[in-house]
Amino acid sequence: MHRREYWTYWSDGGVSAAEYGLWTGDAAPALGTHFHDEGQLTLVLSGSRKFELHGEVMHVKAGQCLYVPAGVPHRSLPHVAAGTQCLNIYYTPEYAQQFPALMQIASVLATQQGATQVVRSVACTEELRHSILSIADIAASSGLSREAYSRKFVRDVGMSPHAYRIVARLNAARRRLRDGAGVAETAADCGFADQSHFGRHFFRAFGVTPAAYRNRMR
Question: Can you give the residue ranges of the HTH araC/xylS-type domain (predicted)?
Fold first, then answer.
């Protein structure tokens, strides 16, 4: 039986600094479908990892790198490979502009992976991020039933409206924790029922507890 491993995150600090995540172990855990508001580069330093991206399973081996554009849903698949170590780099456009080589790497990887920008309805994603309306009301404002709206959203974005809204809130919570906000305060401010509810969703998406993430960012 493989020992359970966790992600370790840290940041360089500063407004445009990158954030890093390191995972080391033998059995990579499954993470739920999620997205980041930053671009992501995953460098497999040893062993291998498996991901689902753009509806395809990608096996990333030692010495290879996976590029995930900002806002694109993806998930980590359970995978056993002894001695695996991988480094994630999450970067903002401001950070990338300071390092032209980073932008070039992302561009080359996007071409190699055949990555294309996910086709989205701006109304779908922006309303779900910022509106207090229910999904049924947002669907009605688009002239669709909730079921039709959900089918279209899944087809265009790659996850359900409800799941997308939760992950958007998790990304907002991640930023608040990075800035030093408390876990209970963040859970309440980001619309989670309680700290336990928040923690379960956060761990499922990011592979670490909110408290452990916040402590590493201090």
Answer: 126-216
Tell whether the torsion through CA atoms of 161, 19, 7 and 40 is positive or negative. positive
Q: What's the CA angle centered on 122, arms 186 and 55, to 5 degrees?
A: 85
Indicate the pTM of the whole model: 0.88
Domain residue spans in the chain? 8-113, 122-217
Superfamily of domain 8-113: Jelly Rolls (2.60.120.10)
> Who contacts 43 (Cβ-Cβ below 8 Å, separation ≥6)?
64, 65, 86, 87, 88, 89
Q: Which residue do the tokens 């899944």 mark?
A: 154
For 27, 121, 144, the CA distances from 140, given in Å and listed in that order, are: 44, 15, 5
Q: Is the pLDDT of residue 65 over 60?
A: yes
Of all residues in the chain, what percent carry a pLDDT higher than 90?
Answer: 61
Give residue-wise pLDDT tens across range 10-37: 987 765 578 999 999 999 889 999 999 9
Strand partners, 91: 39
Where residue 93 falls among pLDDT bands split at 50, 70, 90? Answer: confident
Evaluate whether 8 touches 21 at the Cβ level (below 8 Å).
yes
Sign, CA torsion 191/197/201/206: positive
- Domain 122-217, CATH homologous superfamily name and number: Homeodomain-like (1.10.10.60)
Backbone angles phi and psi of 93, in degrees to 5 = -55, -35
d(CA 40, CA 81): 22
Q: Radius of gyration over alpha carbons of the chain, in Å? A: 18
